Every structure is written in structure tokens, then in C-alpha cells.
Automatic annotation (TrEMBL):
The keyword Cell division does not apply. PANTHER family: MYB-RELATED PROTEIN MYB4, TRANSCRIPTION FACTOR MYB8-RELATED-RELATED. GO terms for cellular component: nucleus. It is found in: Nucleus. It comes from Salix brachista. The lineage of its organism: Eukaryota, Viridiplantae, Streptophyta, Embryophyta, Tracheophyta. The keyword Cell cycle does not apply. Residues 9-61, 62-112 form the Myb-like domain. Keywords: DNA-binding, Nucleus, Repeat. Residues 100-164 are annotated as: Disordered. One of its GO terms (molecular function) is DNA binding. This is Uncharacterized protein.
Amino acid sequence: MVKATLVDKNGFRKGAWSKEEDDKLRVYVQKYGHWNWRQLPKFAGLSRCGKSCRLRWMNYLRPDVKRGNFSHEEDNLILQMLEELGNKWSIIAGKLPGRTDNEIKNHWHTNLSKKVKRNQSVSSGLVEKEQYRETSQSEDSQTEKSETESVSVNSPPKPHHQPDILEIFHSPQEISCSEFSSMNNDSVSSSVKGAADGFSPAEIFQDSVSDFWNLPFLADNNDNQDGYHSLLFTEEVYMHSYAFNYDDDSIDWIQQMMQELQYSN
DNA sequence: AATTGTCTCAACCGCGACTCG
DNA sequence: TCGAGTCGCGGTTGAGACAAT
């Protein structure tokens, strides 16, 4: 169910994520936030491209990702919003707490579109049967399949094109979009957005200083097989000072540390 | 038990939007 | 205003799970 791991031309790993990789990414993001997805894998000790890290975090590792089956209410809301907006998966995901756009998209392609197709064929079948009754009682519904095959379900319904889907698909159930708070936490994604993960910038700074020698990527460098290896400690210092807006004293302290390091090398 | 077909969903890809210097 | 870097979105792919034969 997962793609085999391989390496792309840039030396980045591709395919299925291992538990170790998940752990590294989770620990790093929860601790420091995702201040820059492109740079993040270097510091987290991952041989992945930033894009892959972002996707893995957003779709799988985020603590608020809800797993499991979709409820009728969720199905209803998805169909309703597809009606209104078309295939704006990210907007729809914003109305479904804990659901990702990818998950909703998959759910549409694997389940909802088929159910819609089935229900459309049932409803069209009923009409056909009524017509058949008027002309002939002996025909069976063998033609139903060929009829429904002409209905395109590979693409989501275009806005305002299928007014009866909801009524057909589910028992009437009023769902108000306002019942769901928009939870587009992902817009909170810049350097100090560690706060979105439960850390205030000040806490992150304090944390990063106090745990300076225990940074995840440093601890993991032993098995770091990409080109970063022992990514210069100074770069880590620089990035964190950049990301967390240190005060002058902190910067002085960092510069002092860097000088000491250079001397010690 | 072996083979084949279908389904599921995590992950990849390309592109447009956005941000910043 | 422009270009480079980055982000986020939607479409698509493909490996593994599962069902049917």
C-alpha cells in the first residue's frame, strides 16, 4: 500500500516513510515548528525533500489528523461543498476538522463518486423503468449498466450541476457549514509558528537554547547518509537565530559560541 | 493453493500563487 | 517591477491488500 523506497537524482529518498523517518520529522516539527520546509529535512536529519516532509506531516503525522471512516455527516458535507465549490479539496478539508485534502480527495474517488454513480443509475433506472412500463413490461434493466457508464464520475460534480445528489444519497440531514469551525492551521506555518504546535516563540527559543546540544539532527547525524552529514553546527545556530528573532544578547551569545567552535576546530 | 483482477490510499509530480529582497 | 525561492493545491501513480476465480 506504500511505495517502495528509492532515491531520486538529487539523492533524496522517495517512497514509503520508515518509522524512524516519521519519528525524526515528528520530533523536529513538534519541537521547532516548520519554519522552512525546504531546509527542514537537513536539520531534522532526513534525506527527504522538503516537499515530501511537508506532505508527510500534513497528511499523516500532524497530531490532529483524524483517521478512520467518514461519517454520513462528513460525506454529506463533502458532497454539498463539491456542489457549491467544485473540487476545491483544501477548502473542503478546512470544513472537516482532522481531515486532509488528500484524504477527502481519495475518499471521493474511491467511495463517494461510486455511490453517486450508483444512486444516479438507480434514479435514472427508475425513470427508465417508468418509461419501459409505458411501452413494454418485458424488458429487464440490463440496459441500466450501459446507461450509467455514460455518466462521468471520474471528475467531481461541477458546481450546480447535480441538484439532487444529496437527497438521493443520504437521508435528509441538515448540516450547517457553520457548525464546523475553519481549522486551516496550516496557514500558520512560518518560523514562529511553533506556537501553533503548542509552543510560544519564547518557549521555542528557551527550548532551543537549553536543548542546544540535543538537537534532533545532531543526534541523528550518525546515520545521516545524504550530503549534509555533519551540517555545520554554525548553520544550525544561524537558522535558529534567524527563525526565532533572538534579542541582541542572544545573538552575541551565539556569535561567541560560533567563535569558540571555530577555535576548537 | 495459485493466479488474476480490483480497490485503496500514501506519495509523487507539475504548476500556479505567494513572498521577499 | 522582476526574479528567485518557497508553498500549497489538484491530478495522477503505483504498491500492497483484498476478493474472485
